[in-house]
Amino acid sequence: MLAQAARAVTEALGADPERTLVSDHTVGFGLALTHRIWRTPSHALILGPSSDEGPYGYLTHLQLSQTPLSCAPGLPPAGAEHEEALETWITAHIDW
Fold it and tell me: Are 59 and 70 contacting, i.e. CB atoms less than 8 angstroms apart?
């Protein structure tokens, strides 16, 4: 389902995601899933999992967030050594 949603966003924007990150930092106890990040000249779009915050901890919802880029610092450089910074960037841009 997450891959289908990503294809729909890619088709709508006419560009592949700029960055992907497999992470469980926003899901809680569930499996690690992929966050995808697109940027327009003025906004970041982030598609990824979002925990339901319910009693089970395994139910995951899809979330597409659109946030002005001015709300957080620039996208961290690519590379495994910057994954924690990218997780922080994602958290700063998504709506809880």
Answer: no
Strand, coil or helix: what is 66?
Answer: strand
Global pTM value: 0.75
d(CA 92, CA 8) in angstroms, rounded, equals 24
SS3 75: coil
Alpha helices by DSSP H, the chain: 2-13, 83-93
Residue 79's SS3 state is coil
**CA–CA dist 66, 53 (Å, integer):** 21
In three-state secondary structure terms, 81 is helix
**pLDDT less than 50: residues of the chain:** 27
Strand order from edge to edge, sheet including 33-39:
19-23, 33-39, 43-51, 60-68
What are the C-alpha distances in Å from 66 to residues 5, 25, 38, 52, 77?
Answer: 15, 19, 9, 20, 20
